[in-house]
TrEMBL record:
<dbReference type="GO" id="GO:0016405">
    <property type="term" value="F:CoA-ligase activity"/>
</dbReference>
<protein>
    <recommendedName>
        <fullName>4-coumarate--CoA ligase</fullName>
    </recommendedName>
</protein>
<dbReference type="InterPro" id="IPR025110">
    <property type="entry name" value="AMP-bd_C"/>
</dbReference>
<feature type="domain" description="AMP-binding enzyme C-terminal">
    <location>
        <begin position="458"/>
        <end position="545"/>
    </location>
</feature>
<dbReference type="InterPro" id="IPR000873">
    <property type="entry name" value="AMP-dep_synth/lig_dom"/>
</dbReference>
<dbReference type="Pfam" id="PF13193">
    <property type="entry name" value="AMP-binding_C"/>
</dbReference>
<dbReference type="InterPro" id="IPR042099">
    <property type="entry name" value="ANL_N_sf"/>
</dbReference>
<dbReference type="InterPro" id="IPR020845">
    <property type="entry name" value="AMP-binding_CS"/>
</dbReference>
<dbReference type="InterPro" id="IPR045851">
    <property type="entry name" value="AMP-bd_C_sf"/>
</dbReference>
<feature type="domain" description="AMP-dependent synthetase/ligase">
    <location>
        <begin position="39"/>
        <end position="417"/>
    </location>
</feature>
<dbReference type="Pfam" id="PF00501">
    <property type="entry name" value="AMP-binding"/>
</dbReference>
Length: 565
């Protein structure tokens, strides 16, 4: 059975525009007129408001400088959210280049993997990431002057202007020089294939992969979300409309380098004629201060932030209800209890969840526009233009309320994985994307998702490099704070297993050693926060596939046993 969106028709999607042309100049039926004086961005640290004209000027200046001095093609950016992050992105797109956002907390080996996988020719880094950026550039064979810094006032005192270029330096240089480039123009249909981003995703198996996202995919997803939420339509009283010109949003824990921040927090919000408050680094109490200071109306959160919002003592000191009109949660399902707490705290707000992934250039479901409240446990309904199948393990299609893997088709689907034909063939099939997430869809079209945020195979590959381990399997265990945490079932090699039999007291030391090994080689959100358990063997199917379900059931029984103690 195939299930189509019930959220209404999908408006036309321009297929000959780059992302900066769409965001700066395109008039669209779903795009409201921005109120005079309404800024596009506000720097949370300084309070500085930045409008369209300034952003466009800085983008043009930077594009000119990049063309004159570097002749760029692919750029890797290492930073949290900064007001110049979109400037660097749009400038690169104006030149026909490609952007790859990197987590500023990456270790050198993780960043090097990304730089090599994308064949980056330049790195633009937050000053605090400079040491790692220079180390990676040297290892990757990039000239040291191809590492450029974002301007961050609190971190710039140790870097003189003569040391290396900053974004401010390049913008000033570009604006003072004669324009040396012609902005990239696309032929009809070319936006569907012209690459804009190489955004990394763990996908459903193996190492992180560079998802090849064309300009059309992001533009399509913005229009899909706008159509679903009836942007620029007087579908109900003004005070009850979800997104209104002049509303003010703040991003969540996932900043602009992540696809959620890039598409939903930035481009969708700007398309809605709203203002985005840009927060360099997430701090919960700082976010509470920002809500009051900027009169923020829209929160885009992930489950850990929702837990803090519901349970942190500091929340009692703030009158948030007077401002908050909408809370959207993504990345992982919320428990029924957390949903109910949010509903009680903000009785007049629109509150619900969405679901998406990098391979679909973000959102495929959102809670229905017909209800202020999303259903507990649901990630919403398919947005316009999206079609879904639920596929059982035997390959047959599931019916309503039957579980299986979610497979989706959408105009926002990526082109595949760059330089990885096998993974592309396994995940992208005739316009459909195999998400790897287990779902059920009910007769009302509500999609209930269960999935890991980190591909187990990536952590298993890391574990198998540990000298004490002969086999491993990673499963997700429930957690109120994070949705799910990775737990590793580990088979020790014969020599270490013998030592453990002779001295059971070694167990805690060995587990700590394994967790530290992963922590030393993976970014924080990939650590084994669920712990390590030793087993004599890993259950597999006759074809050799790891039976994660068996180990998930085993971990559930272990938790029940511990709860009784």
């Amino acid at each position: 059975m195939e299930i189509s969106s019930i959220s209404g028709p999908l408006p036309p999607i321009p297929d000959s525009l780059t992302i900066p042309q769409f965001i700066f100049d395109c008039e669209h039926v779903t795009r409201p007129v921005r109120r005079a004086g309404t800024p596009w961005l506000i720097d949370d640290t300084t309070g500085r408001a930045i409008g369209r004209d300034e952003l466009r000027k800085r983008t043009l200046g930077l594009a000119n400088a990049l063309h004159l001095k570097y002749g760029i093609s692919h750029i890797t950016k290492i930073s949290n959210s900064l007001t110049d992050y979109p400037v660097a992105m749009w400038a690169t797109h104006m030149l026909g280049g490609v952007i790859s956002g990197a987590n500023p907390d990456f270790l050198a080996n993780e960043l090097l993997y990304q730089v090599r996988a994308t064949r980056a020719s330049m790195i633009i880094a937050h000053p605090e990431s400079l040491r790692i950026a220079l180390e990676v550039a040297e290892t990757a064979g990039l000239p040291q002057d191809c590492v450029v810094l974002f301007n961050v006032e609190s971190s710039m005192s140790t870097y003189s202007k003569s040391e290396r270029d900053t974004i401010d330096d390049l913008v000033e240089y570009g604006l003072n020089m004669k324009t040396s480039f012609s902005e990239k123009r696309l032929d009809p249909g070319e936006a569907k294939t012209r690459l804009a981003f190489l955004s990394f995703s763990s996908g459903t198996t193996g190492q992180p992969k560079a998802v090849a996202i064309p300009h059309y995919a992001l533009i399509a997803n913005v229009i899909q979300m706008a159509a679903h939420n009836k942007i620029n339509q007087n579908y109900c009283a003004w005070e009850d409309q979800r997104y209104r010109p002049g509303d003010i949003a703040i991003g969540g824990r996932y900043p602009l380098p992540y696809i959620y921040g890039l598409v939903v927090n930035l481009h969708f919000i700007l398309h809605c004629a709203m203002t985005l408050v840009v927060v360099p680094k997430f701090n919960f109490t700082g976010m509470l201060d920002s809500i009051i200071r900027h009169r923020i109306t829209h929160l885009f959160l992930v489950p850990p932030q929702v837990v803090l919002l519901c349970k942190h003592e500091a929340v009692k000191r703030y009158d948030l209800r007077q401002y908050i009109r909408l809370i959207m949660c993504g990345a992982a399902p919320l428990s029924h209890e957390l949903n109910q707490q949010l509903f009680s705290m903000f009785p007049d707000a629109h509150i619900g969840q969405g679901y998406g992934m990098t391979e679909t250039c973000t959102v495929t479901t959102m809670w229905p526009i017909t209800s202020k409240r999303g259903k507990s446990g649901s990630s919403g309904v398919l947005i316009p233009g999206t079609v879904a199948r639920v596929v059982k393990p035997d390959g047959s299609f599931a019916g309503y309320d039957e579980s299986g893997e979610l497979v989706v088709k959408s105009p926002s689907v990526a082109l595949g994985y760059a330089n990885n034909e096998q993974a592309t063939r396994e995940t992208f099939i005739d316009g459909w994307v195999k998400t790897g997430d287990e779902v059920r869809i009910d007769k009302a079209g509500e999609v209930r998702v269960k999935g890991l945020q980190v591909a187990p195979a990536e952590l298993e590959g890391c574990l198998l490099d540990h000298p004490d381990i002969s086999n491993a399997c990673v499963v997700g265990i429930p957690d109120d704070y994070c949705g799910e945490l990775p737990l590793a079932f580990v088979v020790l090699n014969k020599e270490v297993s013998g030592r453990l039999e002779r001295d059971p007291g070694l167990s805690a030391h060995l587990k700590a050693s394994i967790m530290k090994y992963v922590a030393d080689n993976k970014v924080g959100y990939k650590h084994l926060a669920g712990g390590v358990e030793f087993v004599s063997s890993i259950p597999t199917s006759p074809s050799g596939k790891l039976l994660r379900r068996v180990l998930r059931d085993q971990s559930s029984e272990m938790r029940k046993a511990k709860a009784k103690l």
